[in-house]
Amino acid sequence: MKKLTLSALLLLQIVFSHAQNSEWEVGMFLGGINYQGDLIPRTVDLSQSNVAIGLTSRYRYYYTLNFRANLIVGRIAASDMDYPERESRGFSFQSSLVEMSGLAEWEPFGKERELRGGSTSLLISPYLMGGMGLAFINPKPNFPTIGNPGSQNPIIQDIRASYSKVQMVLPLGIGARYDINSKWTICAEIAGRVTFTDYLDGISIAANPGNNDYYWTFGLAAMFKPR
Length: 227
Hints:
The protein is about 15% helix and about 50% strand. The protein is mainly beta.
């Protein structure tokens, strides 16, 4: 965790030092993070969301193309006890999650928004975003009963499973930005994460090993242009 904290601080130092350039914006993110995996029987269940906060920086490469660096911190969790059909199984988990990612944004109306002058514009400009990142996880699964202690027990297999707590993720999402004035912008966005693991929750074989876990973030970002 100390290495992760130092890496995050170094990233922020680089981002904010470059943000003095007029092409850069820096900001803060506040919203939610929502896990979807073995312990969620529905496609989307917002009741399992938790608070997520973050820092972000955007570089305008061209009117319609931006590049971003994100640092997002949150917690994912779920419990079978929240679903009557799963109460008899009784699995649950929680995990801290820290994501560091880089993304590209395509803003089709970016030129119109910029040329209107920001402070006088009422244009809400949509964008698509995608990229790559790393998610640092620490799942703590809970099994109310373990049963047969033999190696063929799927719960024992999950307890003994070896998996990395640093996972590559592919963020994909949509958003919309509104210029308050020439300095401040508000962005609303939602993004899913494609993952390559079924162990975000520390549970796989004992539940649904056929599908990987994933998660969403959603919320608002306030962006500031230093110059």
